[in-house]
Specification:
This protein is an all-beta fold. Helix content is 2%, strand content 47%. The chain binds (Z)-L-Arabinonhydroximo-1,4-lactone.
Length: 528
């Protein structure tokens, strides 16, 4: 990881291209909601929700809260996470809490699925391996874990309710009791995190729902089980009704850095286009400083760029990233829809290529064999070199089964297609060129200067790229149909490769940000 440069003035750009003295939000862009953070000495670790995707619960590491590198996924074995086609999109894994206690990392999360449950996992190394699941009887989502001075563990969850738990067995003790209904009378008190800070126990929650009304409130009390007195300034954070590029701010967690300063990680979105504003990347992870007054944490607005020496910031321009599929395992950023059996997804079958065998016959199917990565930039290009000699497959932008755009090769044709809810259409076709085909998707964010009440958030172009870089565009589409506001649910876009029939092979995949990117370190971008 890059270490923070010492006191740079805001105009200084260092040799790595970091802008000194500022950090840029989001610190983890793309669909990374419900962040939970913990610190061990100088190292921070963070976990997010993953919904219907496998592997689940991405785990990140940072030394400075700004540059995050994905070091794994906590749930990367089918024995830990079994998501079937009965689990709808935006079901699956919600809102983990990540804590370090007694020399071990603890992670608790809920699989929102038929027969799903709240599960606990432990690890000595947060990069993995994580344990097999310890099933609990916790009856709600957004579980938190906190240990008191007597070593008792409390699980607090959406509602806001609480029950004592044995984290080694998952057994709960007594009847859950209601702790608090929130600070403002808003809907959906959820996302609790409980902390011992000084003389008080603080109960941080989200309320108002995860849409534009989202907010963070806090209460404090003498013991983990309360009683809790609400902060008079609740909500301590909300962007509701504010003209601001970051919206839906909520679902937060607190951390103290070794220098004593306090920070909050939270989810937010960056809507684009006209009204009501469409966010296409899902809910992202933001960072904001916290100060204290009268024993209460205070949070200002969450800004896209914050001057906060000596924190470094994002690279000025991110280089194109190619995954050559030369490694013997996929980087943890690659995710699949519900499951990824080894016999359907292999790097060894044709060395240097990713081989996918079809299961579901199209992206409409909940079991489609898909390998993708989160779209992390408002403007970007994805490319792949596809060999479909023995099957049919392509390159897609996926929001869910009912919302996707794709460019597909097979049966002698290249086709650009779109599905938005029950509307489905093929927009352009070409005869397949000889040999492997270079597919390309450009996503171009609408400039704020173009603002009009009905302006789309972005434009998506699907086509074939020539070896000289020329781009034969088969379809140009309004991006709003692949936004969370249109599709519904909790997820954002994923860009990826899929097989729809037979066997298809991909030589490489490029993901090229075409705007100044979010805060991903060069190492994280370039890692295979
Ligand atoms: C999560 C809830 C929420 O469980 O969204 O914004 C839900 N907050 O706390 C799914 O991410």
């Amino acid at each position: 990881m890059s270490s923070a440069p010492a006191q740079l003035s805001p105009t200084v750009v260092d040799a790595n291209g970091w802008i000194g003295g500022m950090f840029h939000n989001p610190v983890i862009s793309g669909m990374h909601p419900d962040p939970s953070i913990c610190r061990v000495d100088d190292d921070y670790y963070l976990a997010c929700s993953s919904f219907e995707y496998f592997p689940g619960v991405p785990i990140f590491h940072s030394r400075d809260l700004v540059h995050w590198e994905q070091i794994g996924n906590a749930l990367d074995r089918p024995s830990q996470l079994h998501i079937t086609t009965d689990t709808p999109s935006s079901g699956g894994v919600y809102a983990p809490t990540l804590r370090h206690h007694d020399g071990r990392f603890w992670l608790i999360t809920t699989n929102v699925a038929p027969g799903g449950t709240t599960m606990l996992f432990t690890a000595t190394d947060p990069a993995g391996p994580w344990s097999e699941p310890i099933r609990t009887g916790i009856p709600g989502i957004d579980p938190d874990l906190a240990w008191d001075d007597q070593g008792r563990c409390w699980c607090t969850y959406a509602g806001i309710e609480q029950v004592r738990i044995d984290p080694d067995t998952g057994q709960t003790f007594g009847t859950p009791h209601r702790l608090w209904s929130g600070g403002t009378g808003a809907q959906a008190p959820e996302a609790p995190h409980l902390y011992r800070i000084g003389d008080y126990w603080y109960l941080l929650i989200a309320e108002g729902g995860t849409e534009r009304g989202h907010a963070v409130s806090i209460a404090r009390g003498p013991a983990p089980e309360g009683p809790f007195e609400p902060c008079p300034a609740n909500p301590i954070l909300t962007h509701r009704g504010v003209n601001h590029p970051i919206q839906n701010t909520g679902h937060a967690d607190l951390v103290q850095s070794p220098d004593g300063s306090w920070w909050m990680v939270l989810l937010g979105v960056r809507p684009g286009g006209g009204t009501p504003g469409w966010h296409v990347l899902g809910r992202e992870t933001f960072l904001t400083p916290v100060t204290w007054a009268d024993g209460w944490p205070m949070v200002g607005r969450v800004e896209p760029a914050l001057a906060s020496p000596p924190w470094p910031a994002l690279p000025l321009a991110a280089a194109p990233v190619r995954d050559d599929f030369d490694a013997d395992r996929l980087h943890p950023r690659w995710i699949s829809v519900r499951s990824r059996p080894d016999e359907l997804c292999s790097l060894g079958e044709r060395p240097g290529w990713l081989t996918l065998r079809a299961r579901g016959a199209s992206l409409d199917q909940p079991d489609v064999m898909f390998v993708g990565r989160r779209q992390q930039h408002l403007s970007c290009t994805a490319r792949t070199l596809l060999d479909a000699a023995q099957g049919r497959g392509g390159l897609a932008v996926r929001l869910d089964e009912s919302h996707h755009y794709e460019i597909e090769v097979g049966d002698g044709q290249v086709r650009a297609s779109a599905r938005a809810s029950s509307l489905q259409t093929t927009l352009g076709t070409r005869t397949t060129p000889d040999g492997p085909v270079r597919l390309r998707i450009d996503i171009i964010a609408s400039a704020p200067a173009q603002w009009h009440p009905r302006e789309e958030p972005d434009t998506v172009r699907l086509g074939i790229e020539g070896s000289d870089g020329t781009f034969d565009v088969l379809a140009e589409l309004d991006g709003r149909y692949l936004s969370t506001e249109v599709a519904g649910g909790f997820t954002g876009r994923v860009l990826g490769m899929y097989a729809a029939a037979g066997t298809v092979q991909f030589d490489w995949f490029d993901y090229e940000p075409t705007e100044p990117g979010p805060s991903i370190s060069p190492e994280a971008i370039l890692a295979p």
